[in-house]
Amino acid sequence: MAAAIELIDLTKMYGARRGLAGLSMTVRVGEVFGFLGPNGAGKTTTIRLLLDLIRPTSGTVRVLGRAARRDAIEVHRRVGYLPGDFAVDGRQRAGECLAFLAALRGGVPADRIRELADRFDLDLRARIKSLSKGNRQKVGLVQAFMHDPELLILDEPTSGLDPLVQQTFLDLVGEAKRAGRTVFMSSHIMSEVEAVADRVAIVRDGRLVALDTVADLRDRSFLRVAIGFAGPAPAAEFAALPGVTDLAVDGSTMSFRLDSSPDSVVKAAARHTVTSLRTETQDLEDLFHTFYTGGGDTAAADR
């Protein structure tokens, strides 16, 4: 499958401070790709390298089959970009600002701008300086989407948006995907990309620690199991079962983490009188927190 973005051993140093350390990954044409990590993980640095806003210390960056540095003008023409700190002239009205940005791109139909503004409930007559953070973000989203780019690069795109506008944004991402476009969106919030992403990459301290589909990452999560017994909890019996860890006993109730099939646990429980049974899947946010804080496995392959 063709690549929309290729990063090969990408490193960026800021003096003695490391921004990225040997980051390699590929984003496929036509997919929605979530780029996740805590603040300071290297997400914005990566995006600025993609757009040749900063230069790498070493490594290779290709965007839409072109060298990010050598072919920056062509790349910018084919990309829609929303920076994490979108800022424009506050004296302009929203409509004037968007018309100016559209002219810089060689023109965008006014109807397209009005359509997007209506969907985001953005008042095009309002001056930028009078807008809330969320409404300024709407202006940024309109300018990113308005020319129907081949590749959307969005840095924390829902920052400041209320839930209804967030859903409008996700709808637009889905429409872009169905049209065969590629969406690369960075975030530190898993739930923001879970509904639309084909794959997600997780970065920590400038390194790739996971790259997989959301479904496969969810398969790595575990069950938290709590069983109540009519008599003393048979802790030793359950502690020996495959996949059982972090076992604790509170009176006649036993709780543990289960990282494998529940078959052996069910069969063991059937040998006793069970008074209660509760299972809880690990929250996906907790799973990502594991990667953020260093407990996850380092990514070994680009799936």
From TrEMBL:
Keywords: ATP-binding, Nucleotide-binding, Transport. GO terms for molecular function: ATP binding; ATP hydrolysis activity. It comes from Phytohabitans flavus. Pfam families: ABC_tran. The keyword Repeat does not apply. Gene3D superfamilies: P-loop containing nucleotide triphosphate hydrolases (3.40.50.300). The keyword Cell inner membrane does not apply. CDD domains: ABC_DR_subfamily_A. This is ABC transporter. Residues 5-230 form the ABC transporter domain. PANTHER family: ABC TRANSPORTER, ATP-BINDING PROTEIN. Belongs to the ABC transporter superfamily.
